[in-house]
Each structure stands twice: as structure tokens, then as C-alpha cells.
Amino acid sequence: xxxxxxxxxxxxxxxxxxxxxxxxxxxxxxxxxxxxxxxxxxxxxxxxxxxxxxxxxxxxxxxxxxxxxxxxxxxxxxxxxxxxxxxxxxxxxxxxxxxxxxxxxxxxxxxxxxxxxxxxxxxxxxxxxxxxxxxxxxxxxxxxxxxxxxxxxxxxxxxxxxxxxxxxxxxxxxxxxxxxxxxxxxxxxxxxxxxxxxxxxxxxxxxxxxxxxxxxxxxxxxxxxxxxxxxxxxxxxxxxxxxxxxxxxxxxxxxxxxxxxxxxxxxxxxxxxxxxxxxxxxxxxxxxxxxxxxxxxxxxxxxxxxxxxxxxxxxxxxxxxxxxxxxxxxxxxxxxxxxxxxxxxxxxxxxxxxxxxxxxxxxxxxxxxxxxxxxxx
Length: 377
What we know:
With 377 residues, the chain is of the alpha+beta class. Helices cover 70% and strands 8% of the residues. It has helices spanning 2-16, 21-24, 26-32, 38-46, 51-79, 87-108, 114-126, 129-146, 156-226, 231-257, 264-277, 293-314, 345-356, and strands at residues 281-283, 318-323, 327-332, 360-366, 369-375.
């Protein structure tokens, strides 16, 4: 899983750190909207000879700084593909904005209500849509209620600004969340593709090397027995060992390169050679003409897996391969057999291949012997 985590991290970097102009100048574009805080700032400047005017300017500047810090932090969090920032850090920012906004209103009066718009926008940036909508409604109603003060006048314009700004940021967040979901889906698809390819390669490597190494082992044992009995035949078996080793190397290279096709006639030839080397009587079909083209590869894997298991596990004296237009069967008369539940890597891989073409793997214990059968209805 470490590889998958690394690949996911790389995908996030690619997806979120592309050096676009909008990405580099994003904070500048966001800072432009602080223009509306000029009203409380100018009101404070108009009363700069009073303590409330000086404090009003300080609170306004502090409010703007906290707002920009929150914006940059929220943007960085979403750059890591997080939809809703954690409350552990967003709540202190929202609390600071609320306190600084209230102090600004207390110092400069009605112009300080411009801060309410930014508080609403900040809530939309960090909270879920439902929570942010509830807060925005409360702020709108509260702002309208403040219009009851005679010296302030109607605050319908400010309430409309809260709604308009909140809806705009709602739309932006919806698009951002959709993009985050899309990127996460792409990362997950990439991870699944890697996992599937890893499983495919492990399955193919097992099928290829399992068969080839089994035959090589049997021939090596036979050659060792023949060294003191029949030197010429021993040399023949050793020559076959060299050929089989080269074939196995070629098969591995083909698997690495992604060429997984095998042929049914070729597997029957290999099966005949392997069974003869294991001194097992073989009854194999001479023709594969009746097998449909879409099932030939599956049946070839069936023959390879079945014959490998016969040589490796069964202790059989006779092996038979049967082919029909809808089935392939490998049966033997051995006294031992692979697990009929099919938990081994070879049978599990064969089941996966069969499922891909709508076929079924059936394993049956005989008396004596074992049958491996692949059938497509």
C-alpha cells in the first residue's frame, strides 16, 4: 500500500500545484474585494483625533488581515483535496473575525457593518453548505433588524450584499468541491488500475513460471536418474532443460511486456512433453478446431494449470484432457489433488479469467483422481 499512497500523493501534487496565472495571483484577486472595508477605515480616519477612531482603524486592518489569512489557509487546505476544512482551526478564525467585526462596529458605527459581509463569506468558505446558509440567514435578519436604529437608517442594501456575496461564494465552492470529487475519483481509478495490473502480473507470472519450473524440476530429476543408466537419454533430457529454461525466460519477458496471449495447440504440445517427462500416460486431443476462438485462450490456461497440478500434486499414472466447444477438462487418476475449494493462486487466477468470459471453474474429486473443468453455458 505504500506504493499506492505515494502515487496518490503524486497525483495530488500534479492536480493542485499547476503553475497557472490564476493560481499565483489568487490572493491578489481576493484582496481586491477588501475595497469595501475602506468605509469603516475612512470613518476611523475622520475621527483620528479620538480614541475610537484610532481603534476603529486598527480593528479594521486587523479584520482584513485575519480574513486574508483565513482565505489563504482555506485555499491551501482545498489544495490538498479536503472539501471542508477542520473545525479545529477554522473556528478560531471565524471567532476572531466576529469579535473584530463587532469591535469595529462599536468604534465606527454603521460603516463597520461592512464587516458582516466578510464574516458571512468566511463562514461559507469553511463550513458545510447547510451550516453556512443558516449563519448567512441569521446575519441577514440581524442586519435588517439593526436598521431600526434611526441614526443608521435602512440596512436592506447591506443585507442584499450579504446574500449576493454568500451566493457567489456558494457557487464557487460548489464548483471547487465538484473538481475535488473529480480529482479524487481520478486518483482512485489510478490506484485501482495499478492494483489490477499488479494482480494480473502476479497471476500471469505464477501461471507461466509455475508450469515451466515444474517441468524443469521433473526433467532435472529424470536426467539425474538417467546419468548412470542411459547417458544418451540423460543428455537429451539436459538439452530439453536448456530449451525449457529459454522458453520460460521468453515467457517471462512476454508477461513483463504485457503480451499474455497463449495458444491452445501450443499448450497441448507442452502438456504432452511435460507429462512424458513425468512418466505420466497422456491422453490428449489431436485437434482444437471445435473450440470457439473467444474460448481458446481460457482453455489454454486451463490445460496449463490442470497439467501443472497433475504433475506437481497428483502422483497420477494417467492424465486426460477433454475439449468441447463449451468446456475444457483435465482429469487424472492420482491419489492426491489440489484443494477443491480452489484457494491456490493458480486456480484463483483461472477463476478470474473464466469469469471474464462468463465461464465457471468446476473442481471434482474422483474415485480415484481429480477433475478440473471450465465450462461456459
